[in-house]
Amino acid sequence: MDKLQAMLVFTKVVETKSFAGAADSLSMNRSSVTTMIQQLEAYLKVGLLNRTTRRISVTPDGASYYERCVRVLAEIEETESSFSAISIPRGRLTVDVPGTLGRLLLVPALDEFHRRYPDIDLMLGVGDRHVDLVQDSIDCAIRIGQLQDSTLVARRIGAAAFVTVASPGYLKAYGTPSTVDDLGRHVAVNYFSNGRILQMDFLVDGQAIETRLPSHLAANDGDAYLQCGLRGLGLIQVPRFLAQSHIDAGDLVEVLPAFRPVPLPVSVVYPQNRHLSPKVRAFAEWVTELANKCPLLSSDNIHPSELAPSKAKRVTSIMRRSAVPDSNGVNDPDDELPELRNDGSHSVRFGNSELSYRE
């Protein structure tokens, strides 16, 4: 039994949570993976995995052994990479990027990437679906927003400012809001991810306000979401890099510029239990250069007023007014949204809207 190969196979089984996933990741037969794990357990005289017909879990001994395997394999890779011939970025690199960012930033520059790194075979996953970097065997990804997964390491490459926009036709029909309070007369197109609606954010007096607007339409793809705004189906809130060309062309109009949400970091992320290989490092450095050349991703172009204080209170706004006035311009109480409450929450009045917040 090749002990190093067995250690590598075991770590892949743990990370993908399946023998089939490990086999696919390592281009091996599933039977070979199963046999190698059995041989490893027999050699160590401990059970590393709990197996059922539906799932695989790690035993306490297996968890301890996994952590040591990761360290050993990382040290070996780092030692090998110290030699110049081996440290040349090469091999297959799997990267996941948001659809709009990939289309606008990465794809136009891929020819330059391949000229610089001809030995890297890039597999670029472009889309807005959520992926698990470890389970899906992805080397690295670009993410917009605060990092939620503690198993990932983030390298910040820029910042995305967000704008609230609508089509001229929509604003002609609904009017142009001048304050957050005016949003009670409007409708939004919602964006959802992982089954969760992402509400619009606004920065009001140093407080980040999450605003729930009436909506009859939601999309989980950035390009589709943008098209809904262009078609006049409601207000949308998108990264400036996605909307700016349409604003310049007059197809979209920014509203509430004084209440822009807090910009979000744009980062290259990769699993923390993996050594930063030459190919991942090369991609991270290249995409950082791209972001630095893109004014719409530069932190330098974000006004300090757009940055919320670190102790800003998170507030949820529940718009109480009907989205569409009746023929007399009066909001119908029957069309009001239901009042939401959580344990420990409080409510205050915000003009004609009601805010609920948790201390």
Summarize the structure.
The chain has about 350 residues and is α+β, with helices and mostly antiparallel strands. The protein has helices spanning about 5-15, 20-25, 30-45, 60-80, 85, 100-105, 110-115, 170-175, 220-230, 240-250, 280-295, and strands spanning about 50, 55-60, 90-95, 120-125, 140-145, 150-160, 160-165, 190-195, 195-200, 200-205, 205-210, 220, 235-240, 255, 265-270, 315-320, 345-350, 355-359.
Give structural notes.
The protein is an alpha+beta fold and 359 residues long. The chain folds into 3 domains: 3-84, Orthogonal Bundle (Arc Repressor Mutant, subunit A), CATH 1.10.10; 88-157 and 267-296, 3-Layer(aba) Sandwich (D-Maltodextrin-Binding Protein, domain 2), CATH 3.40.190.10; 162-262 and 313-358, D-Maltodextrin-Binding Protein, domain 2, CATH 3.40.190.10. 33% of the residues lie in helices and 25% in strands. The protein has 11 helices and 18 strands. It has helices at 3-16, 19-26, 30-44, 60-81, 84-87, 99-106, 110-116, 168-174, 222-230, 240-249, 278-293, and strands spanning 49-51, 56-58, 91-97, 120-126, 140-144, 152-160, 162-166, 190-193, 196-198, 200-204, 207-212, 218-219, 236-239, 253-255, 264-271, 314-318, 345-350, 353-358. The strands form 5 sheets. It has a 5-stranded mixed β-sheet with strand order 4-3-5-15-6, with helices on one face. Strands 10-11-16-18-17 form a 5-stranded mixed β-sheet, with no helix packed on it. Strand 8 (190-193) and strand 9 form a beta hairpin. Helix 1 crosses helix 3 (30-44), helix 1 (3-16) packs across helix 4 (60-81) and helix 2 crosses helix 3 (30-44). The longest helix is centred in the first third of the chain and has 22 residues, at 60-81. It is elongated. The termini are far apart.
